[in-house]
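It is worth pausing here to work through a concrete case rather than discussing structure prediction in the abstract. The textbook approach is simple: state the sequence, then state the predicted structure, then interpret. We follow exactly that order.
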Amino acid sequence: MALDLLVSVLAAAAWAGAGAAAAARRPRTAAALMAGAMVASLARAGSVLALAGAGWWFVQEKVTVALPLLLTASVVAAVTAGPRLLAASRATSAAGRDAVGSPAVVVPLLGAGYAAAAGPVQTFLLGYPAEPGSALILLAVVAGAVLVTWRAMAPRVPLLRAATAATVAAALAGGVLTFLPATTAGATTPGAALGAATPEAATAGAATPEAATAGAATPGGGVLGDGAPAAAAPAADAPAEGGHDMPGHAASAQTSAQMSAPGRPVTDFRGPSEPAPGGTVRRFTLTARTATVTLSSGRKVAAWTFDGQVPGPPITATQGDLVEVRLRNADITEGVTLHWHGYDVPSGEDGVPGLTQEAVRPGGEFVYRFLAAQTGTYWYHTHEVSDIGVRMGLYGMFVVAPRGSATTGVDLTLPVHTFAGTTVAGDHDQPILQGVAPGTPVRLRLVDTDNTPHRFTLAGTVYRLVAVDGTDLSGPGPLSRAGLRLPAGGRYDLAFTMPSGPVVLRADDRTEVVRLTATANGTGHVSGTDAPGPQHTDRSDQSGNATDVTDAGDAAAAAGWPELDLTRYGTPAPTPYTSRSRFDRRFTLVLDRGLALGDGLPIYAHTINGRAYPHVPTQVVREGDLVRLTVVNRGRDTHPWHLHGHRVLVLARDGRAPTGSPLWLDTFDVRPGEVWEVAFRAGNPGLWMNHCHNLSHADLGMMLHLAYEGVTTPFHGGHGG
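Step two, the predicted structure:
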C-alpha cells in the first residue's frame, strides 16, 4: 500500500510539474517531466496489479475509478501535448518555444496531474468502496479543476456553460448518492422482525472473498458478506440501531421498528439466580464516582472511578460461582454501565446502553448476575461514553479460577493504562517491586486497558505464555528474549518459576512495570481467587538489591527482541471446526477511513464497508449457526476487533492458517493491510456489539450490531454524553 501511494504521488507531481514547466515556456524540462510522469503512471498500474494479489478489497476503487481515470488522462496528455512539446524542444526560435505555453499543451498536462492526484484523494478521503456517488464526485472535482485551469488560461472556452452545468450536476448527484442514508436504500418493511434471511441466502454466491466484498459494497447493501446481495436477504442487511458507548448516535427508524417487532426481548436473557452445584454466590457493589486518585509516585490525577480507586476493586470468583454485582452511580453525569470484556455473559448482562439496558444515571443502580463458567483473566469497564470513561478510569479486573485449583505462588494482575501520557500498572507509575523466593511459581496477568497495543518484554527468566484472552494455549513452549504485542483490550498470562536472579517486565521497551527480586523468604503470595490488583502489592525492596537488574537485561537490549508470532506458538490441538467446515453465515468487514454519514452529517469516519455507525447494516444470525467472519484492514491504523458475547477461533491471517496452538480470542489486532479470518458458533442468543476496541475509532463510526433472529430490544437510540 505504501508503494502504491508513493507512485501515485510521484505521478501527480510529475504531471503537474510538466504542466508548470510548459506554462513557464521551458519545453525541454516539460518534456522530461512528462516522460517521467508516463513512467510513474505505468508504475501505478503495476503497483495496483501487485496489490491485487492481497485481495480485491485493496484495489477495488483503484481498478474501477482511479486507474482508468489516470491512464485515460495520461493518454490524452501524451497525444495532445506530446507532439507540441517535442516540436518546441527542437525549435530554434523563441516563437517556437513560446508555443508550448498555449492552453492546448498546459491544460492536458495539468489535467493528467489532477487525475493522478484523484487516486490518493479517493483512497484517503472517500475510502472504500468506490460507489457510483463517490466516483461521480471524483470525476466532477477533476473536471472542475480542468475547467478552471482552461478558463484561467484562455479568454474563451467552448461550451463552458454546458460543461460547468454538467460538472455541478455530477457533483450534486454524487453527493446525494454518497450520503444517502442506508435507511432509504434497500430498506425492509418497518414491521419486519430482525433476521428474516435464511442461511442459504446468507451464503449465496460465496465463492470468493472478492464476491463477498462486492456484494457488501453496493449502496444500501450490507455486511451480509461473501456475495449475498442485499435483495436476497433484506432483513439481514438492515442498518444497525440502538445505543452504544458513544454519545449522540441516534437510531434509524427502520431498525428501531425491527428491534421492537414482536419477539423475545433482550431483557429476557439474564443470568441465573443460583450458582452451579458446588459453587457459591459472590456479591459485589461498585459505586461510580469522580475522585482524585494518588499514584504510587504521589502524583494526583482527576479520575472517574469505581469506589474511588483506579482500577476499580478486583472481582474474583471460582468456576461455578454466581457473580452478582450491584452498580451504583454517585455523580458520573454521562452515565455508566458494566461490560464484562471477553466474558460470555447472557446478553441482558452485557452492559451496552441503548441496546441491552439503559445507562445508569446519577442516583440509579443496576444489578448484573451471571454464572462464572469461563476461567481466566478478564476485565470490566463502562460502555457508556466509553472512549472517555475508560480513559478516565472506569475499569477493573475480573479473574475466575478453576474449581479445585491450588493457590500457591505469586499471582499478579497487571492492568496497563495511560494517564496523561504516563504508563501505569494498576495505580503504579513507578516499577512495582516485590521479593519472591527462588523456586516459587509466578503468574503475571497482563491486561491492556488502553486504546492502542502495548509491547511487553520479560527479562531475566525463561517463561511460557500460558493463556491468551482467558483461554489456555495448547503446548506453550519456553520463551526468552521475545516481544509480546498485546492488543487493546487483550490479556496475556505469563508463567515461570522464580530464578535466583531478578526478573523485569517492561512495557513498550522503556517502562519498567514490575521488578521481582529473589529473596530468602519472599513476600508470600497473591492468590488467583482473591488476587488484588497491583495497587495492593508490596513495593518495598526486601532483598536490599532490587536496583541490580543487570542479569535481567536492559531496555536497549529488549527493544531489539523479535515479536512473537502467536499463530506459530504452541502445539496444534483439535478444534470443533476448521476453515473447511460448512458455514451457515459469512460476513466480510472492510475497515477504512473516509467521508460517511454519521448522525445526519458527513464526517471523516472510521468506516465498515464504507459506512459509519449507525448506518452499518446489522449482522443477523440464528442460534446454532456456524459463522465465518473476514476482517480486512485497508487503512493506516491498527484496529483491535472485539465481538461481544463470543470467542472467535482464528482460521487464518493473511491467508496463512495457524500452525501452533488454536487461538480462541475475543480481541485481535488487525494491522494495516492485514486480512483475518475467524469463526464462531452462534450459541449465545441476544443482541451484541461488534466493534473496534480503539474506542476513539468506535466513536467515529467503527461499530455495528450482531443480532440473533427474533430477539428485540425495548431500548432505543438515544444514549447520553
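Step three, interpretation. The chain has four domains: 2-178, 199-262+575-712, 266-405, 406-564. The first strand starts at residue 264 and ends at 265.
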